[in-house]
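Help: why these numbers?

___
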Amino acid sequence: MTYSVQFGDLWPSIRVSLLSEQKYGALVNNFASGDHVSAELEQLKARDFVNEAIFHREPEPENSQTAAPSPASWACSPNLRCFTFTRGDVSRFPPARRGSLGLMDYYLMDAASLLPVLALGLQPGDTVLDLCAAPGGKTLALLQTGCCRNLAANDLSTSRTSRLQRVLHNYVPQDVRDKNRVRVTSWDGRKWGELEGDTYDRVLVDVPCTTDRHSLHEEENNIFQRSRKKERQMLPMLQVQLLAAGLLATKPGGHVVYSTCSLSHLQNEYVVQGAIELLDNQYSIKVQVEDLTHFRKLFMNTFYFFPSCQVGELVIPNLMANFGPMYFCKMCRMT
């Protein structure tokens, strides 16, 4: 009922897509023999949606009336390769295998989950915080960029950080984990601003949410159970606190991407606006939302985007491209 009001005529299509089989992307493991893996995926008729989009990006006309976004805002995080099947193709990828180096050759994930990492726009030498890192797909993608001078990967749940450790062990060589100084912790993310304020160049805040697609298919521990009603109602408050902590942990001039896999604007735009107000009122810190219209245009051949977000972008499930939901919003801490 809530989503039929929020999405109107789009809701029946979103609903049937959520109830249908999800589409995946194969994130190539650059630490394995990546070129050989890419060739194998191309033989399956899959395409690298990231580099295809960047390669085919249309240059802005020089006399364009709209100011082109600054390079820092449109630059995608580099060195990421993720293969998907084309729209309408419901083929499945075979399970990943271990290559000659003993590492898994690719990681299967909802391809829309890569968009927050791409939007973060990592630069070589960045110090990076992944505040709610488990189960580890986005953390792995951050490492694949080759940009992290330090990477702090945190998740409150120790069982979930165990899954994260397994992903790192299966995909990332030990020397890379050491060289990138990957630090895995299980702290309360809400306190990160007090623990390490003004520290990071880039922060990803991929918060706990109602995980809408997962919740439709899994009865066990479902957040929509009556026994978890209070917890569900408190989610936006927790999300605001986590985003505020992520912004406080960012250096002035640094960037934060907030993301969820929920359709709810109460967990998406409202949280972004709430955290920005909180930082302004309590800390006199100014935060600016970055316009991601260019980013949406870049990847609109792969994903369906909701056209009416107040801030940020939302990938909505569609039977032709059944990725998402995935909301993401990029912010710059100004002061």
In short: Residues 111-333 form a domain with the Rossmann fold fold (CATH 3.40.50.150). The first helix runs from residue 2 to 7. The chain has 14 helices and twelve strands.
